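Course assignment 3, question 2. Fill in each field.
Student: A.L.
Task: Predict the tertiary structure for the chain below.
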Amino acid sequence: MAEYKTPGVYIVEKNAFPNSVVEVATAVPAFIGYTEFARRGVEPLTNVPTRITSLAEYNRLFGGGPPLSFSFTASDDAGKPPFAVDVVPAGKSYFYNSLQMFFANGGGPCYIVSVGAFGDVVKAGGYSAIPLDKLVTNPLLELKKYAEPTMIVIPDMVLLPKDQWSNGTGTIIQHCQAMQSRIGIFDVFDGYKSRDAEGGDVIDYFRNNVNGDGDALNYGVAYYPWLNASIVQAVDIDFSNLNDDGLGQLVTYLKKQVTDLFPAGADGKVPDKGQAASDLLDKLSGQVSAAKANPGKSEVKASHQALIATLPGYQQVLDAMLLKANLLPPSGGIAGVYTRVDDNLGVFKAPANVTIYGAVSPAINITHDEQEDLNVPLSGKAINAIRTFPGRGMLIWGARTLDGNSQDWRYINVRRTMIMLEQSIKMAVESYMFAANNAQTWVTVKSMIVNFLTNKWKEGALQGGSPEDAFSVDVGLGTTMDANDILDGYMRVLVKVAVVHPAEFIVITFQQQMAKS
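Answer field:
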C-alpha cells in the first residue's frame, strides 16, 4: 500500500472481477507449399509463416497458380480409350487450387509458408526430387514459433515419393502432438484410385504407412476419396496448354477425325470445311510459339473456338484436360469446412453431414458397405468418407480421427474442442505466473475457469443438465497440491469436462403391436 505524506484525497481503484478466459481461434490452418513468388514489396517471405485473410491478399504476396501443362497420348488399341491426358508431372501442383477450395468453403485467416517458387520444382524435374526437409520438416520448425495455427495442410505432400510421404505424415503428427494446439489433415496417397485398382489397396497402404504412434494418432485426420472440383474453368484450357509432344500428337489425332468427318468426294477433293480444319491444325504449333513470344497478339483463342465448332473430338480432349486439372486432394476444402462449421455452429459440432463447396463429385463413389471398413477398421485408423447421396448431393460422411479405437479421442470435434479449451485456459492462466501461490490466487483462477466453462456449457460444447454435471475445477492445498508442491513452485489445477460427442449411429426400432379398439 502506498504511503501518503501530503494531506489530500486520494483515489484508489480496485478490480472487482477476475480476469476472463478468451476463447482462442479454432480454425486457422497453415498451408505449406511452393508458390509463384513470395515477397511483400522487396521483403522476401520464403519460409516465413505469413498470416493472410483472403485470396486477394494471397495473390498480392504469393502470386497465382502454376501454368497448366498437359501431356496427350493417342492410342490405336481398340481395347483402350482413344487417348490419354494427364498433367505434366514436373508442373503438377495442388497447392493453389486447394487454397481456393479453402476460401470457397468459408475459409478465413490462415498462414502461408512458401518453401520456394514453382519454377524450382520444374527445374528439379518434379516433386520426386524435392527433399522432405524442404517441404515438411523446416516449415514445421518455423511454425513452432506461432501459437495461432490450429491445422497443418500440405496438399502437395502426396506428390512426394511414397517413402517421403510416409515420413512426412509422421513428422506432422509428432509436431502436432508436441504443440498440443493443432491437428494434421491428411490426404490418402493416390486417393483418386479405387481400392481394387492395379497397384494395391490405397487405404491399406495409407494405414500401414502413416508414420505415427498410438498416443499421437488423435492429432491426425484423413479423408477419402479425392474430389472432382470446379476450380479450373473451361475458359482456362485450350490446346496451348499441351506440351510440345502432346500438341504434335493432338494434331495427328485430330487430322484422322477430319478424314472421317469430311471424306473426299468422288472427284478426290476434300470438302472446303475439311480442308479448312486441316489447314488450321497445321498452324497450331506456330500459333502456340507466337503466343509465348507475344501473348498480346495471339491467334490461339480464335483457332480454339474454330476447333470446338468443327471437331467434336477436340471438345472431348478439352473435357479430359479439365477433369485432370480439377482432380484435387480434399485437405484444402476440408480445412474450409472446419472453418465454416466453427463459425456457424461451434468447434464442438462434428464437421460431418455437410457438403464441400467447389467440388462436383468424389473421384470414387463409395457405397454404404464399402464405408464400413473405412469407418471402423480393426486397426482403429479410421478414414472419413466423402460420399454422394441421391437427392442430397455430396457430403462428408465421417468425423473420426486416426485414433478410432480410443473412446477419449475417437471424434474430431472432441479432439478440437479439447484443444480449444486447453489453449484458452492456458493463455488466461499465464497472467498468474509467479503470482502468490496462496488461497486468494487459487480462488481467482478457479472462478475464472468456472466462468469460462459455464459459458461453453451454455453454448452447447459440454453435456450435462447443469454446470456441475458438465465440468469440475479443483485447485488448492489438500485437493490438487501438497505442501511439497507449494515449496517446489507448483500450482496444480484439475479440470474435468464432459465434451459433447456426435450421434454417429442413430438406431430407430420398429415393432408391430396388436390393434386396439
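Instructor remarks: Residues 437-517 form one domain. The radius of gyration is 29 Å.
Grade: pending
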